[in-house]
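Pasting as-is:
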Amino acid sequence: MYHMKYMEIIFALILKEVISIFTGLVEEKGKILSLVKSSTGYKIKILAKKILENVKIGDSIAVNGVCLTVTKFSSNEFEADIMNETVKRTNFKRLKINSEVNLEKSLTLNSYLGGHLVTGDVDCEGKIINIVRDGFAIKYEIEIDKKYLKYIVEKGRITIDGASLTVVDCTSRSFIVSLIPHTQDGITLSNKKIGEYVNIETDLIAKHIEKLIKIDENSIENLLKKF
């Protein structure tokens, strides 16, 4: 009974804390048209098409897994502002003109949830340390900061540059994902080489479970009474 209550609490916390939510199902790949630095931050312009259907100023779009707010758009491009902190934490600092990026529009109440819950708040960069072909699949081994590895488990979900993928194996310093041909065609990871970097967002639910189990028994009982 308690574990069901814990899940209810976790989802309630997620909905309370997160303004926009994504699934990690990339809708299209866009191209960087410009990335301009100013004294206060960055302004990015991205070539896109499908993602702009019914878009409005203020809508959220995940760009390589980073939640950005649309500030200007036309039929085939949009602009957004990026904070300095976001650039420092993500692979945005490595983007160049014509770099491809994964794009996904935020969920609405009638959206299909086919991936997993993704916030668009990147935890860290990961470095590709190995690429191996396995039949029609391609396996990527990615090294990340050890403090985030505790949120990654075999057969769990991970977000890489905004794409929801299944973890097939873990080591003490890295994890491995495997891409089928359909996924290879739809996301930017298939164009990456050893030594390149990707944005990583670990499992949101795992973070909330960790937070809950740190609460003492009395606090849990009091928290359960509120739901």
